[in-house]
Amino acid sequence: MGAAYQQDFYTWTLEQTSLLKQKRFDELDLEHIIEEMEDMGKSEKRALESYIENLLMHLLKWKYQPYYIGRRSWELTIIEQRKRLKWHIKENPGLKSKLPEAIERSYELAKLGAEKETGIPISRYPETCPWTYQQFTDSEFWPEAF
Hints:
By secondary structure, this protein is mainly α. It has helices at about 1-5, 10-20, 30-65, 70-90, 100-120, 135.
């Protein structure tokens, strides 16, 4: 069973699905099924963090570089990331319990990204995220310029 998993993942998934549908549980490659399910959960959490990071980075740029010529692009990215984040949470409501940790981790990377893209030193940004989840996902929320 392990060889099929290593050599042709796609075919392995089809085989495992077929075995499940046929209720042939004793033939399942449980070790790899468990591994893949754990990876799927981690992937959803990483996607959550990525949406938050991108949103927070653009909100930081919006606040700290208010006269930048590409501001319309930032606005569209903020709108898009808010939608993606809301859809992702709606599809994966179990991730709500991971929001505090995800926001903390994502904000650290958002600050680095904002510094990289704006040249504004990371020390100028608040140490911890200055906005709540409810604020930064609210379509009416636009941080005032610094």
